[in-house]
Amino acid sequence: MTTTTNRSLTSTRKPLLLWTISWLLILAGSQYLLNTQGDSLQAIEWLVIILPSLIAIGLAKSYWNYLSQADELARAIELKALAAALIAGFIVWPVKVLAEQAGWSFDGWPNPVVVVMVISYLSALVLGWRAYR
C-alpha cells in the first residue's frame, strides 16, 4: 500500500482544481459565445467547439495524476463517488430521453443529466470522506 503525505496530495489537488475551474469557465464561455454570437463566429467556430474537449484532456491527465498519488482509501472513495455518478446517469438519462420524446423541452445549458451526475459524485465524495474521517 502506498501512502502519501498531505503535502503531496495537496500538490496534485491544486492543478486538478485549476484544470476543473478552467474547464468549467471555457465550457460556459463557449456555450455563451455560440448562443449569443452564432453566425459571426464562423472563422473560429471549430475552435470554440473543440476547446472544452482539449481542456478536458488536461483535466483527465491531472485527475489521473491525483489518483496515482492518492492512497488506497482515497482511491476507494473516488471509485465509489464515480460509481454513484454513473448510476445516477443511468437512472436520469432514460427519463430525459423519454421526456423529450413526449414533448418536454430541455433546451439550454446545463444538461440535467450532467447536473445530476455531478451532484451525485460530489455528494458521494463528501459522504465518503466524512465516513472515514
From TrEMBL:
<feature type="transmembrane region" description="Helical">
    <location>
        <begin position="46"/>
        <end position="64"/>
    </location>
</feature>
<protein>
    <submittedName>
        <fullName>Uncharacterized protein</fullName>
    </submittedName>
</protein>
<keyword id="KW-0812">Transmembrane</keyword>
<feature type="transmembrane region" description="Helical">
    <location>
        <begin position="16"/>
        <end position="34"/>
    </location>
</feature>
<feature type="transmembrane region" description="Helical">
    <location>
        <begin position="113"/>
        <end position="132"/>
    </location>
</feature>
<feature type="transmembrane region" description="Helical">
    <location>
        <begin position="76"/>
        <end position="93"/>
    </location>
</feature>
<keyword id="KW-1133">Transmembrane helix</keyword>
<keyword id="KW-0472">Membrane</keyword>
